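QA checklist item 7 of 12: single-chain prediction sanity check.
[x] sequence parsed
[x] length recorded as 385
[x] structure emitted
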Amino acid sequence: MLKTDTTKKIRLNTDRLRWSAEGKKSGPVVILFVGIHGNEPAGLAAVDLIAENLNRSPRELSGSVYAITGNLGAIKQGVRYIDADLNRIWEMYNTRKDFSRINGITQPAEYSESLGIKQTIEQILAKHKNDTSEFIFADLHTTSSQSCAFILLNDTLANRSLARKFSVPQILGIEENIHGTLLSYVNNLGYKALGFEAGAHHDRESVKRSEAFLWLLMHNAGVLELNAEEFSKFKKRIRAHAGVPDTYYEILYHKLVEDPEKFEMMSGFENFDRIEKDTPLAYEEGRLIKAPKSGRIFMPLYQKKGHDGFLIVNEVSEFWLELSAYFRNSFVHALLKYLPGVSVGSKQSFEVDLRIARFLVKDIFHLLGYRVTEKDEYTLICYKR
């Protein structure tokens, strides 16, 4: 745990609120999450390095920074989670579901962890709501495979504008494939939120990349100003590997795993490796799993906890991104209800009957900024982000 002189800039509060640093009240507020998965120590080390540096530094902050520790129990045990994945349950806060019971477990450890995190977020928002220029959230993670750094974001124009200030690959629309993330919860509150993946869990470079990202985030948010040399150094430190374009990516395929104990990813795959259709990738219950599409492998599962076996991603054209930015604030939304097979679900959503609307449904709704989920075999629900 961080040990810092509390008479200086950094204030230590509780285990949950790891530290805070407050400058001008009218400036932006940056809220950091680390240790949401207990076997990912790089983010924890990085925020502590930032705190120690701020304490030694003469820098004045033009805003505030808060570091929130995630799954305290899992961190102590060095495991991803204890009863349930803490980064998969947040969607339940927007429903009437009772998630004090998850996976058949009453009062799972992650239930109380999420309540603690939620309470801390609400306290920070209440404290600054009348004076800050904006709130910006970031969640720091690492992966079970070797990887360059990359950013995950729910595909809103506000998130895009922030994410493109970082010269790393950007994965769009992750919330359609990985449900119940903390960042989706934050986005639904109306704030900018990014996920930063620094590399492999125990790679020393993951700590360095996480620290570099944090300095760049505070600089880009306007909390502090890096000099040209610092900015160049940190930008270089998070740069993607050779052969991995620094651009946006979309998810083409998501392999869900029912029992991670019965799933074995073939060795040697790293994030963003190119693969062709029918490339052997894994075994599940002894059955060979081949790539259903060509693209780039993403987040291959090399641990025995988690239900995301692997994803396949591919680059998104700049033309498509510019077109989507143009249409998202246009009159076209009002015309969607007149399309064949489309009906109004709520003020913020449409339902699409795939037996009638068969072509380019996801593409059209993605273009206009909608999150697309499956209600059943024949029905899509498209939510306005």
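[x] summary fact logged: Residues 1-8 have pLDDT under 50 and may be disordered.
[ ] second reviewer sign-off
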